[in-house]
Amino acid sequence: MSSTGIIVGSCIFPILGIIGYIFAHVSIDKNFKDGNKRRENKKLAIVVAIMTTFCMWLHWVCAYMHQMHPIIKPEPEKSE
After folding, report:
1. Which terminus of the chain, N or C, has less C-beta within 10 A?
2. How far apart are CA 50 and CA 80, in angstroms?
3. Sign of CA dihedral 31, 34, 40, 43
C-alpha cells in the first residue's frame, strides 16, 4: 500500500497556511493604522495561521488514515 496520498495531501496544507497568513496580513495592514496594534495583530495572525493549519492537517490525516485501515470491519450476516 502506497502512502503517496498522505505525502501529497500533507504538502498542500502548508500552502493553505501560507495563503491564510498572507490574507490575514493584508487584512491587518488595511484595517489597522496604529503601528502597535498592527504589530500585535500580526503576531496573533502568525499563531492563528499555524495552529489552524496544524489542526486542519491533523483532522485530515486522521480521517484519511482511518479510511485506509478501518478499526471496525463489517461482519457478514449468517444465513440459516
Report:
1. C
2. 57
3. positive
Q: Which three cell numbers stand for residue 29?
A: 495592514
Q: Which residue has the higher pLDDT, 71 or 10?
A: 10
Task: Give the angle subtended at the CA of 67 by the CAs of 66 and 73, to the nearest 5°.
Answer: 85
Residues 6 or more apart from 60 whose CB is under 8 A from it? 9, 13
Q: Are 17 and 53 in contact (CB under 8 A)?
A: yes
Q: How many residues does the chain have?
A: 80
User: Can you give the C-alpha Rg of the chain in angstroms?
Assistant: 20
The pLDDT value recorded for residue 34 is 83
Is residue 70 pLDDT above 80, yes or no? no
At residue 80 the predicted structure's pLDDT band, cuts being 50, 70 and 90, is low
